[in-house]
Design goal:
This protein is an alpha/beta fold. Helix content is 31%, strand content 21%. The longest helix has 19 residues. The protein binds S-adenosylmethionine (SAM).
Length: 491
């Protein structure tokens, strides 16, 4: 077990928590798990003007079914030693039966038990969910964290484009806030501007208000009689990330930074450790870094881990953090390829900075596993198609196939990324494809490039192409953060 330091983990959070996160080592947990919506969530990668937004792939599925895994995790809860949780999960099973909702609740309850273990006595947990399952999740949280440690139900109210609806439109999420121990729970009171009506009520009652460094009101003050700010309430109006917002990364279910900054400011201090076990494109770890906290992020897909790596490096140039669970050598790469073809392809794409391409739709990709856009003339973009092979054997027919795909896709270059060593015939066939010549510099680049995973891992090989945009057409760049460690006084 390691001490918490800024770390990203690829893997199932249950395994990562059990193997890597010490008891009572975390100050604040924020979790935004799938909500049991029975939907698939697609990542929409940016595509330059004139290209269809084709690189749309399923990032994660949010559907749960009762089966062998649910049964196994159910038994773990029953035997966990937490008798409240054990009793409750058995009652829920009797009430709900063995169905999708029950499978989801078992998955969540089992993770709550480990999240409770890793939380410090002064710590807090914020569970982000929606009305699909919030009523059941609160009962389970009561059992694991103690109903006396329930602090707030926060309503995150957002506005989005109204849809036709045969009932009231849903415009809020629910966030449950629990402390681990109500006697010791750390909480920084945040302030909001008073409403107009309360301003009128207070007219004439001027008094001195004191704030601490983080902008929080000092606790000895009466909060309801001052005019500079009042203690924040539990209904938060924070806009969702608009489609045109520079903050939007294309990852489904991405939460606004402002929401996470608020939670982190209220329930942690600088230097504290923040854990997000379902971290998606990394909003919580971004906010934690910005506010001078330490952080741990976990996600079960390479897509998410890759996006977070890029996001953090863009926003905080020079940032240092560890990435665990992704292959570091050929054995690791072979292991991943054997276990999960999609994850291997996504990871291999990340090594060459390519967008993964329709990786989940079997047969629909027609030989394209990734795309890179580059620019070597003003106002135009060029395309590289990437083919990833994780098998033990590769052959010359695969190179011919890629040559056809380059033609069919009107691509400028093709990249053949392979775990197995290419044969001599393959190299000869690739050379036959000739060169792509940059119209500006007149420099030539092989049109069909074969690159081994070994070469990429030891740094001896990388794709060769010119790019004035430095990767910014393939992946949207995140705005650089100005400074770290300080937060706004009033939210
Ligand atoms: C709703 S999204 C989180 C979005 C995130 N809050 C953000 O702002 O980007 C849920 C994430 O949980 C991940 N996930 C689902 N099951 C997981 C598991 N067992 N362990 C780790 N991550 C998991 C999914 O891959 C997905 O990225």
């Amino acid at each position: 077990m390691t001490n918490p330091k800024n770390s990203l983990y690829f893997g199932d959070n249950l395994d990562v928590l059990r193997e890597h996160i010490k008891d009572e080592s975390v100050d604040l947990v924020y979790l935004d798990p799938p909500f049991n919506s029975a939907k698939d969530y697609n990542v929409l990668f940016a595509s330059p003007k004139g290209e269809q937004s084709e690189a749309q792939i399923v990032a994660f599925k949010d559907s749960w079914h009762w089966g062998e895994q649910a049964e196994r995790e159910y038994n773990e809860i029953v035997r966990s030693g937490n008798t409240y949780a054990a009793e409750m999960i058995q009652s829920l099973r009797r009430f709900l039966g063995e169905n999708d909702m029950m499978a989801y609740l078992v998955m969540m309850a089992n993770r709550f038990l480990d999240l409770h273990r890793v939380l410090k006595p002064t710590g807090s947990i914020y569970l982000h969910c929606d009305p699909t399952a919030s009523h059941y999740l609160k009962i389970v949280m009561d059992c694991v964290f103690g109903k006396g440690n329930f602090r707030n139900e926060i309503i995150w109210r957002y506005r989005r484009w109204p849809a036709k609806a045969a009932r009231f439109q849903r415009m809020h999420d629910v966030i449950f806030f629990y402390g681990k121990d109500q006697r010791e729970n750390l909480f920084n009171t945040l302030l909001q501007l008073p409403t107009e009506s309360s301003m009128k009520r207070w007219k004439g009652k001027k008094q001195k208000v004191e704030f601490d460094e983080s902008g929080a009101r000092l606790p000895t003050q009466e909060l309801d009689e001052q005019s500079s700010g009042v203690a924040m309430d539990d209904v938060w109006d924070i806009p969702i990330i608009a489609p045109s917002s520079p903050e939007r990364l294309g990852y489904p279910t991405q939460k606004p930074l402002a929401l996470l900054e608020r939670i982190i400011s209220a329930s942690s201090d600088e230097g504290d450790v923040i854990l997000d076990p379902f971290c998606g494109c990394g909003t919580a770890v971004h906010a934690a870094q910005k506010l001078g906290r330490k952080w741990i992020g976990i996600d079960i897909t390479h897509l998410a881990v890759t996006l977070i790596e890029k996001r953090l490096k863009d926003a905080f140039p020079g940032i240092a953090f560890d990435v665990h669970g992704t292959p570091k050598d050929l054995d690791g790469a072979r292991d991943l390829a054997a276990r999960d073809r999609d994850q291997f392809q996504w990871w291999a794409c990340s090594l060459v900075n390519a967008q993964p391409y329709q990786g989940k739709k079997k047969g629909a990709d027609g030989g394209v596993d990734g795309l890179i856009y580059f620019q070597d003339e003003v106002k135009t973009h060029k395309k590289i198609v990437v083919s990833v092979k994780g098998g033990e054997n590769v052959n010359v027919a695969m190179i011919r196939d890629l040559a056809h795909v380059i033609d069919r896709e009107k691509a400028d270059i093709g990249l053949f990324v392979t775990l197995a060593e290419p044969t001599k015939n393959m190299m000869t066939e690739a050379v036959k494809e000739g060169y792509y010549t940059s119209p500006v510099t007149e420099k030539a680049f092989p049109k069909l490039q074969i690159i081994t995973i070994a070469g990429l891992l030891d740094g001896s090989k990388r794709p060769e192409y010119p790019d004035l945009s430095q990767g910014a057409i393939t992946f949207k760049k995140v705005k650089r953060e100005e400074k770290t460690g300080k937060q706004k006084g009033l939210f």
